[in-house]
Design a protein that fits this description.
single chain; 201 residues; 2 domains; four-stranded antiparallel β-sheet; 7 helices; 25% helix
Length: 201
């Protein structure tokens, strides 16, 4: 079934058919052209998704604690010397990678830069549907789930266009100019290949 995603008061919208974008334009035009479409309305702005340039650092060089470990380990990613003390098994690495990918999706990320080398991480990225793009070297900045907080480059996925992959995010901000100040935690929805993979509670 074709779905129209629209955000904010300006009426920008994307019509999604399966894994692809069928059309991009004002909501009124898309709704008129597809009267039987399901409609998802979101607050804020609809944009291409983010590419987090710190894929290996966030998913292989960090441990994302299980909520059941919060009393002992906290909730933030564990890196550096503290990570070495955990003596992670492959199963724990896999669980961490799955939680890490879910946290990336919650920040509007649709792809990571840097090919994962660990089988458990590769599997988690593939299962989540995140894209992987190459990178020549580690970028400047501090690895962060929120690219706007990293001090490094903020990279967007390709433009939204008819016939292109339906990979985008929605951020609950009045306009794009406000997004750097609010950060990617303002994400309310992430769509990968037409699937709604994250929706804010």
């Amino acid at each position: 079934m074709l779905t129209i995603h629209t955000a904010g008061e300006r009426g920008g919208a994307v019509a999604v058919d399966g894994a692809l974008i069928a059309a991009v334009g004002p909501y009124e035009e898309l709704a008129a052209a597809h009267p039987g479409a399901r409609v998802r309305r979101w607050p804020g702005v609809l944009t291409p998704g983010l590419v987090n340039v710190y894929g290996p650092e966030l998913l292989e060089a960090a441990y994302h604690p299980d909520p059941r470990e919060a009393d002992e380990l906290g909730t933030e990613p564990i890196t550096g010397p503290a990570l070495a003390t955990l003596a992670l098994t492959e199963a724990r690495r896999g669980g961490s990678a799955r939680r890490g990918t879910q946290r990336l999706l919650a920040h509007g990320t649709v792809a990571v830069a840097g090919e994962p080398r660990t089988p458990a991480v590769r599997d988690a990225v593939r299962r989540a549907g995140l894209g992987v793009v190459p990178r020549a070297q580690r970028p400047e900045g501090v690895p962060s789930l929120d690219p706007f907080a990293s001090g490094g480059p903020v990279v967007w996925a390709g433009p939204l266009r008819a016939g292109g992959p339906a990979r985008f995010a929605v951020f609950d901000v009045p306009d794009l100019a406000e997004l750097p100040a609010r950060g990617a935690a303002a994400c309310v929805a992430t769509v990968l290949d037409g699937r709604l993979v994250y929706r804010a509670a």
